[in-house]
Design brief:
This protein is mainly α and 186 residues long. It has six helices and no strands. It has one domain. The relative contact order is 0.09. This is DUF2306 domain-containing protein.
C-alpha cells in the first residue's frame, strides 16, 4: 500500500529529527541560558512529533508483518508517547513545570526506545543463539521474528519503569543524604 510506505518514511525521518531536537530539550545549559530556544524547539518537538511521528506511528502497526503482538506493542507505544508528550505540553502551558519535566522525560524515554529496541533484539538473539540449532534448525532469521515482540516491549517498558523508579527515588526522603524520614502518624 503506497500510503503505508509514505507513513513509514515520514515516521522514520520525523523520528530522526525529533531524536536530534529532543537533545536541546534536556540540555540544562540551554534551558537555563536560552529559555526561548527551549520553548520554541519544544513546540516543534510536540507539534512536529504529533504530526510526523505520533500519528504515523498509529497508522503503521496494523500492516506490520511481525504479527499481532508487535502490532499491539507498537500501538501502545505510540499512544503512550502521544499521551506523555501532549500531557507534558499541557503542563507547561499551565506553568506546572515540575510536572512538565516529568512528562517530557517520559516522552524522551519512549522516543529513544527505538534505539534501545535494536540493542534489545541483538541481546535477545545472542541469548537465543545456542537454542537456534535445536529449536529452529539453525535458522537465525526466524528467532529474530519470534523475538521482535519481546524486544519491542522491553525497549520501551523497561526504561519507563526505570524512569518511574528514579522519580520515586528522588522524592523519597531516604534518597537524600542526611534527610530524616517523616514519622508515622504525622
Amino acid at each position: 500500500m503506497p500510503w503505508h510506505y509514505a507513513m513509514l518514511v515520514t515516521h522514520i525521518f520525523g523520528g530522526t529529527v525529533l531524536m536530534l531536537l529532543v537533545v536541546l530539550q534536556v540540555w540544562p545549559w540551554l534551558r537555563g541560558r536560552h529559555p526561548a530556544v527551549h520553548r520554541w524547539s519544544g513546540r516543534v518537538y510536540v507539534f512536529g512529533g504529533v504530526v510526523f511521528v505520533g500519528v504515523p506511528a498509529l497508522l503503521i502497526p496494523p500492516l506490520s508483518h511481525t504479527g499481532p503482538s508487535s502490532q499491539v506493542g507498537s500501538t501502545l507505544w505510540a499512544l503512550a508517547w502521544l499521551a506523555f508528550t501532549v500531557t507534558g505540553y499541557v503542563m507547561a502551558c499551565r506553568r506546572r513545570f515540575a510536572d512538565h519535566r516529568r512528562w517530557m522525560l517520559r516522552s524522551f524515554v519512549l522516543l529513544y526506545g527505538i534505539a534501545l529496541n535494536r540493542l534489545a533484539v541483538a541481546a535477545l538473539l545472542l541469548v537465543m543463539l545456542p537454542q537456534a540449532e535445536s529449536v529452529y534448525g539453525g535458522d537465525v532469521g526466524t528467532p529474530a521474528i519470534d523475538l521482535a515482540p519481546a524486544s519491542l516491549f522491553l525497549s520501551w517498558m523497561l526504561p519507563l519503569v526505570l524512569l518511574e523508579w528514579w522519580f520515586q527515588r528522588r522524592r523519597s526522603p531516604r534518597a537524600r543524604p542526611g534527610a530524616r524520614p517523616t514519622p508515622v502518624g504525622v
